[in-house]
Amino acid sequence: MFKIGEALVGKGNEVAHIDLILGDKNGIVGQAFALGLTILSKGHTPLISVMRPNLPAKPFTLVVPKVSIESMEDAEKIFGPAQAAVAKAVADAVEEGIIPKDKIDEWVIIASVFIHPNAKDYRKIYHYNYSATKLALKRALQDYPSYDKIMFEKDRAVHPIMGFRVPRLPRWNAPYLQVALDIPDLERTKFIIQQLPKSDKLILEAGTPLIKKYGTKVLNDIKAIVKDAFVIADLKTLDVGQVEVDIAYEEGADGVVASGLAATDVLDKFIYEAKRLGIYAIVDMMNVQDPIEKLSSLTELPDIVVLHRAIDIEKKEEIRWEFIGKIKKKFPKLMVAVAGGITPETAPIALREGADIIIVGRHITQAKDIERTAREFLRLLGTDIDQNRVHVE
Question: What is the Cα–Cα distance from 37 to 30, expressed in whole angstroms?
Fold first, then answer.
């Protein structure tokens, strides 16, 4: 048997983070236990957890410090409250039935323990490490987290130290509003971004004119204002697809756009490279007569396809709404975006046809009240991911 558990409990310098493995004494965990106890690493001396000197808990538990022990003060924290906390948590886990009583001489545990060098309060060190160890044991023996838990949380989660959500576009959260930042004026663009409401439904697009004037480095300027925004680089790539993906990726792009007019080989390389790097590949079908035929010619599909009516012909040409349903029927895994003069009046049409993303430029960016206008569209899209949500384990 080989089980893995993890838990973080507490706050401040005394915060506890436990990683542990639990398994048979005669298996790979037992081997790791023996090696850990006999092959020492400077600053990370392992020790058997005891509730007091000469009274270890069972299953025998090896405490391994994560942070280098640099002084006797550091050593006292590990050999005192942390060691005792882990041992007491193991003993209580047996008493409470978390660990079966008949396994205490068959299993061993290895617990990796974090103690901040600036931790001072021994009571809190004990308190937090006790709770984290018992929770990690419980999780290990319950095979936590389940697949469903991971899938539910992966696009909602925010790592507390990183401080911002990793930007993705989960399909279950569609539809989205993509704001096309097409004005080739960086200061005006920054002002627009600052006026936009915060929303999990919002995508920012560094438009082609903006990128042509400032280069892909403008992506970094956008990210500096909103770290957790999903930012697309509208490159409209026609050639050297792989190279252009790399350039945008290095500047922080979460998605890149190629023109559907590009040769199939160019698009194949563009899509391959974007997916290799873990960012979204987007193909803009502006002036492509048959988007379905073009998509069918590709080795691998992009993540998003854009049905786009050019600005210069908005008054002459209708958006091809019918292609939304046709594309989604033929390629059900594709997300479909629509662009070109979208207004609060036409957006509902796109949404009824099944659009996953509505792309709006001038109607928002040139509005007198940018926030109010953006909210007009956001109200059509449903609630944010975390609205009214209380995070519990």
Answer: 11
